[in-house]
Amino acid sequence: MSESNIKILMFACMQCGYAAADLAGVLKVQYNPSVRIIRLPCTGRVDIVHILRGLVDGADAVICVG
User: Fold this and answer.
1) Quick one: pLDDT at residue 60?
2) Which residues contact 16 (CB under 8 A, 6 or more apart)?
3) Alpha-carbon separation of residue 2 from 5, 10, 20, 30, 56 (angstroms)
4) Contact (CB, 8 A) for 33 and 55
5) Residue from 3, 1, 31 nearest 12 by CA
6) Per residue in 11-64, pLDDT tens?
7) Minimal CA–CA distance to 54: which of 46, 62, 42, 63?
8) SS3 sequence of the chain
9) Rounded Cα gap, residues 31 and 12, in angstroms
């Protein structure tokens, strides 16, 4: 599998993880465009069902950033 075909799903805390990703965008830091970010009020709201659903729907990896 080439790097361009990788799909990564990221669940990000609105106050921490998403803010860091937003700051990376403001600073024009390059990161893989295959990362799809889902903003949540808190990563404590992520359930195993959300992670498994992401994998079943085609994500190669799921990460929770809090």
Assistant:
1) 96
2) 65, 66
3) 6, 20, 27, 18, 20
4) no
5) 31
6) 999 888 888 888 888 899 887 888 999 999 998 889 999 999 999 999 999 999
7) 62
8) CCHHHCCEEEEEECCCHHHHHHHHHHCCCCCCCCEEEEEECCHHHCCHHHHHHHHHCCCCEEEEEC
9) 15
Record the tokens describing residue 53, joined without a space: 């659903």
Q: Which residue has the tokens 């990460």?
A: 63
8 A C-beta contact, residue 31 and residue 24: yes
Largest CA distance in the chain: 34
